Amino acid sequence: MIKTDGIAGVTDTDFGTEVLGAPLPVLVQFTADWCGPCRQLAPVLGAVAREEAGRLKVVQLDVDANPETTVRYGVLSTPTLMVFRAGEPVASMVGARPRRRLLQELDSALSR
Prior knowledge:
The protein has 4 helices and 6 strands, in the order ββαβαβαββα. By secondary structure, the protein is α/β, with parallel strands linked by helices. Strands 1-2-4-3-5-6 form a 6-stranded mixed β-sheet. It is globular.
């Protein structure tokens, strides 16, 4: 796992272990190096990862380098954020957003 902005990177190879098999819910950012909004979102995700460390794992997946997982979950735009719990996607959000809004959406997804 490669870390960017304090957030671990996952790949097609380790997605099953790191995301689907994780004991905590996982927020996955589907991202790309060329994506401006993805770069804007990186510090927000870093802050959320630190604040929610005991409740939520945050990872990034590069869509260009990992097409298998990207296609499997129907990701068409970056950034796409998906919350996985017990190996299943429970929420999906497209586009950058401020920290407060992201935390509200995460609270809603995690309390389902």
